[in-house]
Amino acid sequence: MKHQNTLNIVDRTEHSWQQQLSGARRSFAELCTFLDLAEDSFDGVMKLEKQFPIIAPDPYLSRIVKGDPRDPLLLQVLPQAAELISTPGYSDDPLEEANASPVQGLIHKYHGRVLLVASAACAIHCRYCFRRHFPYQENRLQRNQHQQALDYMASNSDVQEVILSGGDPLTLSNSYLSWLIQAITELPQIHTLRIHTRLPIVIPDRVDEGLLELLPSRLKIVMVVHCNHANELDENVKATMEQLTSAGVTLLNQSVLLKGVNDDAAVLAQLSQRLFECGILPYYLHLLDPVQGAAHFDASEKKAGNLMAAVIKVLPGYLVPRLVRERPGAASKTPLPVVT
Predict the structure, then answer these.
(1) pLDDT tens, 255-277?
(2) DSSP string spanning 295-327?
(3) Angle subtended at Cα 215 by Cα 130 and Cα 190, rounded to the nearest 5 degrees
(4) What span, in angstroms and rounded, lies between the C-alpha atoms of 202 and 56?
């Protein structure tokens, strides 16, 4: 264990997390072999590998109960034949983000903040992802394109918060992140940097000494992680979150309500409690965005309201996430009613 100032920093090398990322399971056969699953029990899955490829790193897979085809973590990464069904009302761009992109790789749809597609890569492919059809190849930005986005921010004085998203911004190297974050820090009107990432959950080693050192002191740093089930939060994840908290990072979580994964009041309450044990506050519980290929995960708005009513009865208010739906063109997330 290394010590720097008052922070306890685990000595992790960039090479280590990058090795874990490059070694992620990327085929149905690999997934089944690693998890002791019978390949012939999943009809139609092989057809999906090219449409939306599997990416699942071992640190995440190690939390799945081997041989259990209904494990809630497995269901988030395992292709299912239901993805091949075309569902009315579902689309490839459910949030109509293409209409809110003034320059390549930047989305400006909410007042005072912009979202920068910092990286086109993800450490894990979640089967319900609302950007599963996003044209990442067309938005794989180089430094000059990111500079155009920075110039746009500089010319819009009302932009006070920058959200790094993707893909996953933490798939970028520390050196590139350092340049990008420093450039954002130099914009005088920016006071908050928000990082939306799943990497500290799926590969905790990503939070290494280099990453902690590059977080700026002038800006308020908010990291919004994405976790849907308490089983994702093992002790390695907890230790990683403690490092981020010690570095002054505010930690929030956003979840998606997923049928068969967490559409149960006890499961949602356990998730909030485990998040708090890890130093993370529940932030949003999203209803599923209607992205084509994910309709089998949908839980109705009425069911969501009933679930949240049950959760409210057993948790203190600060552990209850806001139930929301994102609607195209809306000025903010739309809070949903809770049935009491």
Answers:
(1) 999 999 999 999 999 999 999 99
(2) GGG---HHHHHHHHHHHHHHS-GGG-PEEEE--
(3) 70
(4) 8
Give residue 312's domain range: 2-335
Give SS3 for 242.
Answer: helix
Q: What is the CATH number of the domain that holds 42?
A: 3.20.20.70
Number of folded domains that form the chain: 1
Q: Is 5 left (phi over 0), alpha (psi -120 to 50) or beta?
A: left
Q: Which residues contact 45 (CB under 8 A, 6 or more apart)?
A: 28, 78, 79, 80, 81
What average pLDDT does range 205-220 have in this prediction?
92
Residue with tokens 């409690």: 273
Spatial separation of the C-alpha atoms in residues 9 and 185, rounded to whole Å: 24
Burial category of 3 from C-beta neighbours within 10 Å (exposed 0-12, middle 13-18, buried 19 and up)? exposed
Tokens of 169: 């911004």
The pLDDT tens digits of the residues spanning 50-92 come to 778 899 999 999 999 999 999 999 999 998 888 888 899 888 7
Across-strand partners of 283? Answer: none
**pLDDT digits over 119-156, tens only?**
989 999 999 988 776 665 665 678 988 999 999 999 99
Residue 284 domain flag: yes
- The answer to whether residue 327 is domain-embedded is yes
> Is residue 72 included in any domain, yes or no?
yes
Sign of CA dihedral 49, 51, 56, 57: positive
Q: Is residue 305 in a domain?
A: yes
Task: Determine phi and psi for 155, rounding to 5 degrees.
Answer: -90, 0
